[in-house]
Specification:
- The chain is mainly alpha-helical.
- The protein is built from nine helices and two strands.
- The chain has a two-stranded antiparallel ribbon with strand order 1-2.
- Helix 2 runs antiparallel to helix 3, helix 3 runs antiparallel to helix 9 and helix 4 crosses helix 7.
- The chain starts with a helix and ends with a strand.
């Protein structure tokens, strides 16, 4: 009843489509603030482990890293050309003046390394490229930083999920629990994130100059 044979029949193509699209969106536009990117990458590794798709785990890691970098570059150019103002929401829980100020301060204090480290901080991960672009951070410097961050972020989580699942291969019930638990966490997290995004967008807008001191 709760088997995982359907994963093998679906093939890794579904995992590729979901991961690449979610990673790109999370790294490029505001709705990405509310998506569970970390858990998605880990669960993708776990799912690929069901069919022993080791080659796919490694190549997906590379492809998703590229998607993450391209997403950040899009966010950077949005900030550079049209994103001088990030729209905070009055009474917002995520898109608040306080969170935007924290993200801006994080970049101001750490510069290059802030872009690298931002990959591991969910809401900063989406805001950092926009703020960096609006602040006119050197594009080559930004590209190097976001590439280093992507290489440290994506493969670590995908491969951790893949090889962690492999460790429990001989304990079928635990493997199944881990798989379904991860998928449930991702699905619920995505649904909750979209709900939170809609809630934030229903609040009155308050412009927040991202280049403000």
């Amino acid at each position: 009843m709760f088997g995982t044979d359907w994963l093998s029949s679906a093939g890794p193509a579904t995992v590729w489509v979901v991961v690449l699209s979610f990673v790109f969106v999370e790294c490029a536009i505001i709705i990405g603030l509310f998506l569970p990117g970390d858990s998605l990458l880990f669960v993708a590794g776990v799912v690929l482990a069901q069919g022993a798709h080791e080659a796919h785990a490694w190549t997906l890691s590379i492809a998703a890293t590229v998607a993450a970098v391209l997403g950040n570059l899009l966010g950077y150019h949005i900030g550079r050309k049209t994103g001088h103002v990030v729209i905070a929401r009055r009474g917002g829980k995520v898109l608040s003046h306080e969170n935007l100020a924290k993200a801006r301060d994080f970049l101001d204090r750490r510069g290059f390394w802030a872009i690298v480290l931002a990959r591991w901080i969910p809401w900063v991960r989406t805001l950092a490229p926009l703020i960096a672009g609006a602040a006119r951070m050197d594009q080559r410097k930004f590209l190097v930083a976001t590439s280093i961050g992507g290489l440290a972020w994506v493969p670590t989580l995908v491969l951790a999920g893949y090889y962690a699942a492999g460790l429990v291969t001989h304990v079928p019930w635990l493997k199944t629990v881990a798989l379904w638990g991860g998928i449930a966490f991702f699905v619920v997290g995505t649904a909750w994130g979209i709900w939170r995004y809609r809630q934030e967008m229903h609040r009155p807008a308050e412009p927040e100059p991202v280049g403000a001191d």
